[in-house]
Amino acid sequence: MKVFCLGGAGKIAREAALDLVQFGNFEKITIGDYDENAAREVAEWLKNPVVDWVKIDITNTNEAVERMKPYDIVMDGTTISLNKQSTRCIAQANCHGINLNGFGEEYEYDEIFKANGKIMVPGFGMTPGTTNMMAVYACNRLDGLDAVRVSHGSFRPIAFSKSITETTTYEYDPELPGRVVYENGRLKQVPPFARPRIIELPPPYPALEQYIIPHSETFTLSKWLKNNGRDAGLIEVRGSWPEENMKLIKALYHWGFLKNEKITVNGSEAGIMDCIAQYLIHSEKGQKTQLYGYALHVEVEGSKDGRKKRYTLTHTHPSSDGSVEGWEGLRSYTRCVGIPMAIGVILIAAGKTKRITGAVIPEEVFMPEDIFNELAKRGIHINIEEDDL
Question: Which ranges of the chain would DSSP assign to H, the alpha helix?
């Protein structure tokens, strides 16, 4: 099989490509990126005869589709703002697809993927993605469901890449309609910094106050449960970055900067948040943080055989302190995000899905145990606790 790594020169996507080289068995892996110098650099870094690179402009639909057509699977590492366009190209190229973000526009192309007998999995990194599998694992072991709480601590610099800066400003946009909780049978919109809750993350990460964020798990978990004749009284998704990052985002929110209103500086007009993002991208402070890595925490409460129970699932990975080669510093974050997407590609290629086609939520595609087993091969472990309440 052949894999096209779209946006493959990015810091996260290149880690996914590395995983394909290390754990996959592919005839060809192509790094496709608008930045041809970066694409060449990644292909050379991977040092494998099946890897090559090509320049691709995803906004040129016809050309991008022709680039993708010879491939079986497109692993899409592009930014949120490009995912509608990238998914359109993947569908028209008659390929399987998978991406990191999963914010919803991908489902518009469901019928094309179905007609082609192909699958598109939106949102399969650490969160969304691995968190979905953790929640499914717990839900499958309970008869009744009271609450599903998904949380993550993302320990990385606030602006180590343009796409991460975009994600930050997107998630705390005051007008964003997708910041919701699922409660009493319906989706309910909430403002930024809603429903603070202290989450006990696994070591070495600290307990953090976390807030509701606009992640797709709220939508996909509620849909998956309904598709299986079930429901939960509450589904919430929270997240946090390092404490100093959160202090900055709170200040930007309270001062109104996240509205990104236009300002004029020296005769040029730009969004105020766009200006701040540019500063962060080019500043030392925006490129560094004290603690690196990722920490997932999923808590599911319900009943089994008439007894109240709670499942708590967390995840751990190799240390960022340099004691494990390849996991130093920022790479402990970027590898955590990129590896699950690569695992998804490997499982699709191996036919280890639930034999479904179309643009499909992750819960309907993969078995949690398959994902957990693959993660363990990479030194990433899902820890499971079961408690009576």
Answer: 11-23, 36-46, 61-68, 83-92, 110-116, 130-139, 162-171, 217-227, 243-254, 272-281, 284-287, 331-349, 368-377
Asked if 299 contacts 366 with a C-beta cutoff of 8 angstroms, the reply is no
Is residue 261 within 8 Å of 304, Cβ to Cβ?
Answer: no
The torsion angles phi and psi of 141, rounded to 5 degrees, stand at: -105, 10
Say if residue 242 is preceded by a cis peptide, omega within 30 of 0.
no
- Nearest CA to 171 out of 201, 203, 194 is that of 194
Output the DSSP codes for 239-252: EE--HHHHHHHHHH
In this prediction the pTM is 0.93
- Domains in the chain (CATH in brackets) are 2-121 (3.40.50.720), 130-333+368-388 (3.30.360.10)
Per-residue pLDDT tens digits for 294-346? 999 999 999 999 999 999 999 999 999 999 999 999 999 999 999 999 999 99
Residue type, 191: P
